[in-house]
Design a protein that fits this description.
Elements lengths: L3 H34 L13 H14 L3 H23 L1 E4 L7 E4 L7 E4 L1 H33 L3 H4 L2
Antiparallel strand pairs: 1-2, 2-3
Helix pairs in contact: 1-2, 1-3, 1-4, 2-3, 3-4
């Protein structure tokens, strides 16, 4: 490492992967909760599912319980984050100092998986991910509440 910019890039790279994994785990926790409320005998299975299958299940549940309008923007945003995570994980990344955009990446197996960033642009991608994760932390409660309410019997059903 030879520049402060390269160190910032590497920290941001690490932070992005870390926070993406936290988002993945939080989606799994939410699905575990919803599955347990629905009577699934194995709700912990969601911890081992892929990120894509977790997101699909969240969206399926959001539609099933009529809260998709809350999740529609988040759904598009989380796909953007997933694309960058895949590029980070499956691509090769280089620091090319002193170019104006010193962060170069190449991920041949990913569509449009080649490009470059300034350290500021790269950091903005990380900040975007954090916002998407925070949004999920807020809106997941509405999904969990909808599933929980649907799972509880109404008093009139208990006492005819």
């Amino acid at each position: 490492m030879n520049t402060e910019g390269e160190i910032e890039f590497l920290r941001t790279y690490k932070d992005f992967i870390y926070h993406f994994n936290m988002l993945d785990r939080n989606i799994g926790y939410s699905l575990r909760y919803c599955s347990s409320k629905k009577g699934d005998p194995n709700p912990q299975k969601w911890h081992s599912k892929t990120f894509d299958s977790k997101v699909k299940k969240v969206i399926y549940l959001a539609k099933e319980y009529d809260v998709y309008d809350i999740f529609s923007d988040w759904h598009a945003q989380v796909q953007d984050c997933r694309y960058l995570r895949n590029t980070l994980s499956h691509g090769s990344w280089e620091w090319k100092w002193p170019l104006p955009k010193p962060i170069h990446f190449h991920a041949p197996e990913i569509k449009d998986g080649k490009g470059q960033f300034t350290t500021k642009e790269f950091r903005e991608k990380f900040i975007y991910l954090k916002c998407v994760a925070e949004t999920f932390g807020t809106i997941r409660t509405q999904l969990e509440t909808a599933v929980e309410k649907a799972a509880k019997p109404v008093d009139s059903e208990l006492h005819p």
